[in-house]
C-alpha cells in the first residue's frame, strides 16, 4: 500500500507534474504483486478483508483465523498511511498552507482514502465499489482455478496485480476503487488522528461506510457467480490417469 498511497501523494502534491492517474493505478498494481510475493507463502497473501471474509464463509479459512488476518491487514494499512504521511509531510504542509483539508481546492485527504466524485450518488458509488470487487474476486478465482485454465505457477501474483491495475484503469473514476475495507478504513482513521479531523467520516454524505460494506458484498457475489457459471461446470482434475488407464500429459 505504500506504493499506491505514495504515488497518489506525488500526483496530488506535485499538481500533475510528477505523474497522472495512470501512475496511481500502476503503483497499486505493483504493490499488490509485491504484497502477494511477500506474504503468499506465509498466509496465502490475505491483503483484503472482504476476500478473507468470503473465504471464511466458503469454508476455505477457519473463522478463528479471521481476527488475526484482519488485524494484520489493518495494522499494515495504517502503518503504510503513517509512512507516506511522514515521507510527504513537508509537501502536505506546503500544499495546504499548513492546513490539512478533506474538501476544497487544496484537499489532501483523498491521498490516503477514497472519496466519491461530486457527481456520484450514494447508490451509484455503492454499485461502483460492488461491481469493481466482483471483478476483483472473479479475477483472483480464475487465476487460481486449477480445475479450469489456471495461471502458470509463479505468475499468479503478477496477474493479480494486473487485475487491480485493470480495475483502476476502467472503474476508478467514480469512487477511486477502494475494493478493500483494509485499504480504505485504516488510512481514514489515521487521517482523522493526524490532523484532518472527523470530516474524513462525514465527507461525501458519510461515504466512509461504503468502501467497507460494498466490497464485502461484491466479493460474496463474485464468488457466487464463479461457483454458478464456472466452478460447477469444471471437469474434475484427474489424479493419475484417464478412464482408459492412459497417463495424462502434464503441461509445463
Automatic annotation (TrEMBL):
<keyword id="KW-0813">Transport</keyword>
<keyword id="KW-0472">Membrane</keyword>
<feature type="transmembrane region" description="Helical">
    <location>
        <begin position="119"/>
        <end position="143"/>
    </location>
</feature>
<protein>
    <submittedName>
        <fullName>AQP3 protein</fullName>
    </submittedName>
</protein>
<dbReference type="InterPro" id="IPR000425">
    <property type="entry name" value="MIP"/>
</dbReference>
<comment type="similarity">
    <text>Belongs to the MIP/aquaporin (TC 1.A.8) family.</text>
</comment>
<keyword id="KW-1133">Transmembrane helix</keyword>
<dbReference type="GO" id="GO:0015254">
    <property type="term" value="F:glycerol channel activity"/>
</dbReference>
<feature type="transmembrane region" description="Helical">
    <location>
        <begin position="68"/>
        <end position="89"/>
    </location>
</feature>
<dbReference type="GO" id="GO:0015204">
    <property type="term" value="F:urea transmembrane transporter activity"/>
</dbReference>
<dbReference type="InterPro" id="IPR023271">
    <property type="entry name" value="Aquaporin-like"/>
</dbReference>
<dbReference type="GO" id="GO:0016323">
    <property type="term" value="C:basolateral plasma membrane"/>
</dbReference>
<feature type="transmembrane region" description="Helical">
    <location>
        <begin position="26"/>
        <end position="47"/>
    </location>
</feature>
<feature type="transmembrane region" description="Helical">
    <location>
        <begin position="155"/>
        <end position="179"/>
    </location>
</feature>
<dbReference type="GO" id="GO:0015250">
    <property type="term" value="F:water channel activity"/>
</dbReference>
<dbReference type="Pfam" id="PF00230">
    <property type="entry name" value="MIP"/>
</dbReference>
<keyword id="KW-0812">Transmembrane</keyword>
<feature type="transmembrane region" description="Helical">
    <location>
        <begin position="206"/>
        <end position="225"/>
    </location>
</feature>
<dbReference type="InterPro" id="IPR050363">
    <property type="entry name" value="MIP/Aquaporin"/>
</dbReference>
